[in-house]
């Protein structure tokens, strides 16, 4: 025995000097288990008993420390469990990946196993609590203990123990439960009456909780625990502070030192006390004060945990242990079993093996089914939270699936599926909680996806405008349909119709307008310009390969090739310089030859860009409609398809636009008549097109997209995406009233006017010989005799032309309007000023512009038509539009540009959808006012002018090759 007057050792070993002392007790040994919570590093809960281990040990779960004080009948067993802070910390540090729910369930399962052992091998259990209040979670532990004890332990324990001395239940008795609170509330008074009242209140609350949850009953055989009826079972350590905070103690001592009076004040106190009439003045009588101090001191000495425990130990020794714990006892009720140390040690070792050690052995198996269930599925049985969370997740899953199916339409797409799935997940999360929610969400996604794909999935093929097809995916359908309907006009603009959202380029730029042409009375009668298209030579034709159709990509691929060596670079530079020199010499020779020879080529030597001059007569209307329609006739499609289609190079328009906008007149170089005659004769002799032109255009492969300046001349489109038509004479337009509804429907009020454009042209006659001059004057006199009047102003060799131009925009709702500037919609005749037309002709016009119509959302209008009213003058207006969208510049795709006939109303319809090399160019969703050109633009300088071929007569409107400089 050491100086502490007690022995301590680790179970199950027994020291040799302690065994004889325990054997002397015989059948009067009372086993007391100490279990609960602790905060010290040694996990020691025996501080209130003034006991601790001799040697510091490492705490571990399931370890038992024995304490015995000689001269007593009490053997104390200290259980180290997962409720000890040191044990919990050690197990927590061993975790590689921590999941709180699973870790907490494991810790609780281990504590239940230790508690089961304590309930079977102890007469009295002391639960230690570090806080001054009762932890209600202990009630849940008791419920789990009772469930395991009744459902599993009572099944296998009597079978495995056999005939033992612990009785039929395999335990010493229904252990009496005592509660030790190491700390007393700081706000409560530490007097005898206050401490007793607080202990009684705590006992009442604990008793009600355990009774309410059937932890304690009146029958000791069916009761898991026992509480004494007439004895106190709650103890508060009110006078001794366990595990004090050393920092707080140091602070209190510092405060006391700072507030301690100095010596001078003590001398003054002594002087004051000296003035008292007698000793003990203003003090209570000594006898009463001594009596009060003795009662408090006696209570303090007797109010210890050891004295508290011994009163319950004495009940066990006296044999009234059960009678003091249960109100109703039958004569057949098992009594409390007192055993000697040797028998108890034997039985406790067997129980320790069954309840603790075998459960810690991984893969341990037993032939007893109940015991095997205890070893393998105890944690699963105790995890009532998992069952609760699982039921909530299943309930939420059912409601989520029901919500999804109830709101799902017959056919819907991915966006609707995602929205319905998001709503179903919200319903699930409202009901489901815990760790099973994530798995339930995954299952919900699988079930809803299967439900959607089971005949309800939408095709979702995107249209050219980005709208998905609404047809069922599983069922075959001839063409896609998005359900979106647009209002659009025909080629001539007279008739409006409903058009379905296009899914192919052919539907967007060709089929709809052909369908509308069959319904429009005007489209049937108008003279149309035939654009060059693909003419197959056999039935086995196909779309051109990507690289062949778009050679511009070959140049970009060449940039990605690895860099050449220094020698190769030097050689290539020398070769390029030599080639440039040769080209320069050849160019000089060609220029010299051209100066000597008369210029007669495909351009007829008469093309000039149009420039605006400031005219005065804005209301001038050009009347007359005779042979102008025949002048607008063009060659057959079979002849045009065989002509050469070359790429039109972009030219700089900055210089020309600056010079033309200054108001200077346009110089037009006239041809020699003999040259015209020679050209006509040569054309009459050669009826077949040149062979080289037929060889350039492929007859087996067509261009899959629209023609642009980099698409090459070898491929032609399968169908025309542009439309150019003469809708009547110039007299059908009146500048006073604008475009009428019966002629052009759908225009917004005030936005149905064309802009007047005055162009001054100076005719320059070529140098003629005397015979040629006389012959030319004779021909001019004959022409003047045939013409009664001129529909233009002519002053000598100067001509003033009056042209009307309109840039029409159309939105998907069918609203049409003209623009008076790149950033302004025409609002009526008052917006037409002297230089209004210059703003639209000499500037890039945006391809998309916000429609001024009122709606819930802003609709974008697209530049769809260009209206041109030509003058009745010996000149032809020539069109060469170029639309810049992204990195592509789209053109008409013909080398011989269209010439508009005189005194006629022409309308050029632009493509509805633009397609580049490798992608569709979709319109922007929204345009900002400062980025109006970001969606694309029509480049300035699309108009040109050329002299009318008088030798052609009625066929003057035939096409001729033309090259002109952009404005």
* Biggest beta-sheet profile: 11 strands, mixed
Structural class: alpha+beta
Please report the total strand number as a whole number.
32
Helix content: 25-40%
Overall outline? elongated
Biased composition (Low complexity): 567-578, 646-664, 766-784
Function: Involved in nonsense-mediated decay (NMD) of mRNAs containing premature stop codons. Probable component of kinase complex containing nonC and recruited to stalled ribosomes.
Protein name: Nonsense-mediated mRNA decay factor SMG8
Family: Belongs to the SMG8 family.
Key terms:
alpha+beta, 32 strands, elongated, seven-stranded mixed β-sheet, 37% helix, 4 domains, 26 helices, eleven-stranded mixed β-sheet, 967 residues
Structure description:
- A hairpin with a 4-residue loop joins β29 and β30.
- The strands form seven sheets. Strands 10, 13, 15, 16, 17, 18, 19, 20, 22, 23 and 28 form an eleven-stranded mixed beta sheet that branches. The chain has a seven-stranded mixed beta sheet with strand order 1-3-4-2-5-6-7.
- The protein folds into four domains: 313 residues, no CATH class; 53 residues, no CATH class; 70 residues, no CATH class; 365 residues, no CATH class.
- By secondary structure, the protein is an alpha+beta fold.
- It has 26 helices and 32 strands.
Give the SSE layout.
Elements: E1 7-10, H1 19-24, E2 30-36, E3 64-68, E4 74-79, H2 85-93, H3 100-121, E5 124-129, H4 137-161, E6 176-181, H5 192-212, E7 234-236, H6 246-259, H7 263-274, H8 286-302, H9 305-318, H10 341-360, H11 369-382, H12 384-407, H13 414-431, H14 437-453, E8 485-489, E9 496-500, H15 505-519, H16 521-525, E10 527-528, E11 542-543, H17 546-549, H18 552-559, H19 566-596, E12 607-609, H20 628-631, H21 637-641, H22 654-660, E13 666-669, H23 673-685, H24 691-696, E14 701-702, E15 723-729, E16 755-764, H25 770-786, E17 793-795, E18 798-810, E19 816-821, E20 824-825, H26 836-841, E21 845-846, E22 848-850, E23 860-869, E24 875-879, E25 883-885, E26 888-890, E27 899-900, E28 904-909, E29 914-915, E30 920-921, E31 937-938, E32 943-947
Parallel strand pairs: 2-4, 2-5, 5-6, 6-7, 11-14, 13-16
Antiparallel strand pairs: 1-3, 3-4, 8-9, 10-15, 12-32, 15-28, 16-18, 17-18, 18-19, 18-23, 19-20, 21-31, 22-23, 23-28, 24-27, 24-32, 25-26, 25-31, 29-30
Helix pairs in contact: 3-4, 3-10, 4-11, 12-13, 12-14, 13-14
């Amino acid at each position: 025995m050491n100086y502490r007057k007690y022995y301590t050792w680790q179970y199950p070993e027994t020291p040799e000097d302690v065994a004889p002392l325990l054997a002397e007790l015989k059948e009067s040994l009372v086993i007391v288990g100490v279990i609960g919570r602790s905060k010290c590093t040694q996990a020691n809960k025996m501080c209130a008993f003034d006991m601790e281990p001799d040697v510091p040990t490492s705490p571990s779960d399931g370890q038992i420390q024995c304490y015995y004080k000689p001269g007593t009948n009490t053997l104390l067993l200290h259980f180290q469990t997962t409720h000890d802070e040191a044990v919990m910390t050690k197990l927590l540090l061993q975790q590689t990946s921590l999941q709180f729910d699973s870790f907490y369930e494991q810790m609780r399962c281990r504590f239940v196993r230790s508690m089961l052992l304590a309930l079977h091998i102890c007469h009295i259990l002391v639960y230690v609590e570090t806080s001054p209040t009762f932890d209600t979670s202990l009630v849940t532990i008791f419920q789990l203990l009772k469930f395991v004890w009744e459902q599993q332990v009572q099944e296998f324990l009597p079978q495995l123990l056999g005939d033992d001395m612990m009785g039929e239940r395999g335990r010493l008795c229904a252990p009496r439960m005592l509660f030790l609170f190491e700390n007393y509330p700081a706000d409560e008074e530490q007097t005898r009456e206050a401490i007793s009242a607080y202990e009684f209140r705590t006992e009442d609350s604990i008793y009600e909780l355990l009774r309410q949850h059937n932890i304690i009953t009146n029958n000791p055989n069916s009761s898991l625990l026992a509480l004494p009826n007439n004895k106190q079972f709650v103890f508060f350590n009110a006078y001794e502070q366990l595990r004090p905070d050393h920092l707080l103690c140091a602070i209190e001592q510092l405060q006391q030192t700072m507030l301690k009076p100095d010596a001078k004040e003590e001398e003054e106190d002594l002087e004051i006390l000296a003035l008292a009439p007698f000793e003990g003045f203003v003090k209570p009588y000594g006898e009463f004060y001594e009596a009060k101090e003795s009662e408090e001191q006696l209570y303090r000495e007797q109010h210890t945990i050891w004295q508290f425990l011994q009163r319950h130990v004495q009940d066990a020794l006296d044999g009234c242990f059960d009678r003091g714990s249960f109100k109703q006892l039958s004569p057949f009720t098992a009594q409390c079993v007192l055993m000697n140390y040797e028998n108890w040690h034997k039985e406790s070792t067997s129980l320790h093996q069954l309840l603790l050690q075998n459960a810690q052995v991984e893969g341990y198996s037993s032939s007893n089914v109940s015991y095997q269930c205890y070893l393998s599925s105890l944690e699963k049985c105790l995890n009532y939270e998992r069952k609760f969370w699982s039921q909530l997740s299943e309930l939420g899953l059912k409601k989520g699936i029901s919500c999804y199916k109830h709101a799902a339409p017959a056919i819907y797409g991915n966006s609707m599926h995602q929205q319905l799935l998001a709503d179903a997940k919200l319903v699930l999360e409202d009901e489901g909680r815990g760790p099973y929610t994530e798995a339930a969400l995954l299952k919900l996604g699988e079930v809803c996806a299967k439900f959607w794909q089971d005949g309800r999935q939408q095709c979702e093929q995107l249209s050219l405008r980005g709208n998905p097809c609404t047809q069922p995916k599983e069922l075959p359908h001839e063409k896609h349909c998005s359900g979106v309907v647009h209002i659009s006009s025909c080629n001539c603009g007279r008739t409006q119709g409903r058009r379905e959202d296009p899914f192919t380029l052919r539907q967007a730029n060709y089929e709809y307008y052909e369908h509308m042409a069959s319904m429009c009375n005007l489209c049937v009668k108008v003279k149309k310009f035939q654009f060059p298209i693909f003419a197959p030579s056999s039935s086995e034709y196909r779309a051109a390969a990507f690289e062949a159709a778009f050679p511009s990509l070959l140049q970009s691929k060449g940039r990605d090739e690895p860099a050449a060596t220094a020698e190769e670079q030097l050689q290539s530079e020398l070769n390029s310089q030599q080639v440039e020199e040769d080209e320069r010499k050849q160019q000089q020779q060609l220029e010299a030859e051209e100066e000597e020879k008369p210029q007669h080529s495909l351009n007829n030597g008469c093309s000039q860009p149009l420039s605006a001059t400031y005219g005065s007569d804005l209301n001038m209307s050009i009347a007359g409609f005779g042979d102008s329609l025949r002048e607008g006739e063009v060659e057959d499609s079979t002849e045009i398809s065989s002509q050469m289609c070359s790429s039109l190079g972009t030219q700089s328009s900055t210089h020309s636009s600056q010079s033309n906008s200054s108001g200077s007149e346009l110089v037009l170089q006239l041809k020699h008549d003999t040259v015209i005659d020679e050209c006509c004769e040569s054309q009459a002799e050669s009826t077949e097109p040149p062979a080289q032109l037929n060889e350039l255009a492929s007859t087996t492969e067509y261009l899959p997209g629209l023609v642009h300046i980099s698409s090459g001349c070898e491929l032609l489109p399968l169908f025309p995406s542009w439309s150019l038509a003469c809708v009547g004479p110039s007299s059908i337009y009146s500048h006073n009233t604008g475009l009428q509804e019966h002629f052009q429907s759908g225009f917004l009020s005030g936005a149905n006017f064309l802009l007047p454009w005055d162009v001054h042209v100076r005719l320059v006659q070529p140098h003629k010989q005397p015979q040629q001059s006389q012959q030319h004057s004779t021909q001019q006199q004959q022409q003047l005799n045939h013409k009664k009047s001129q529909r233009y102003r002519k002053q000598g060799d100067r001509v003033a032309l009056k042209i009307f131009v309109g840039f029409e925009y159309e939105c998907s709702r069918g609203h049409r309007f003209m623009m008076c500037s790149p950033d302004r919609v025409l609002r009526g005749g008052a917006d037409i000023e002297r230089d209004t037309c210059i703003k639209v002709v000499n500037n890039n016009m945006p391809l998309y512009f916000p429609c001024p119509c009122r709606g819930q959302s802003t609709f974008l209008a697209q530049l769809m038509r260009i209206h041109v009213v030509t003058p009745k003058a010996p000149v032809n207006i020539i069109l060469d539009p170029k639309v810049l969208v992204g990195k592509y510049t789209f053109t008409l795709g013909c080398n011989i540009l269209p010439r508009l006939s005189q005194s006629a109303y022409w309308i050029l319809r632009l493509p509805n959808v633009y397609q580049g090399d490798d992608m569709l160019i979709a319109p922007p969703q929204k345009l900002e006012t400062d980025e109006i050109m970001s969606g694309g633009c029509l480049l300035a300088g699309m108009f040109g002018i050329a002299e009318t071929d008088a030798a052609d007569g009625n066929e003057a409107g035939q096409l001729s090759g033309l090259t002109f400089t952009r404005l």
